[in-house]
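Lab channel / #folding
Pinned by the channel admin:
"Please post every new chain as: sequence first, then the structure tokens as a reply. Keep commentary short and put observations after the output so the thread stays searchable."

First post following the new format, from NK:
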Amino acid sequence: MQDRPLPIVVLGLLSAGIGAALLTSGLALLGVAQVAFLVDANAAGVTGSMVGVAELGVGVASLVLAFGFWLRRDWAWGLGLAVFGLSLALSVAAVVVGMRIGTPLFLGALSVLMIWMLYTPRVRALYHH
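Reply from TO:
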């Protein structure tokens, strides 16, 4: 078994956790938005659907990113910046759409932590940046 440095383990596990949370949150938001749209066809249902689909996409990308971090792929560093930046933007969008503030605030804080970790000298060196 290969020994992995602690930052790689943390990045991989947190990316997988964020991905799972975004998939769950995206499916929930998509379901609620569809019910809202069926009850009263309004812009909130459409906006909620768009944010839900975006969260599903970023959730899948985060799971792919966890794989890249775990296997120390060079592309994972750049993809990590993009995915966590999008995750942060989606957290803000989810609050604007009307989702309860707890989950988006937690995911936003984790995204900020992950972006900070990616810029630490040790992680940049591990991913050749």
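NK: The chain has one domain: 6-126.
TO: also worth noting, The two ends are 26 Å apart (CA to CA).
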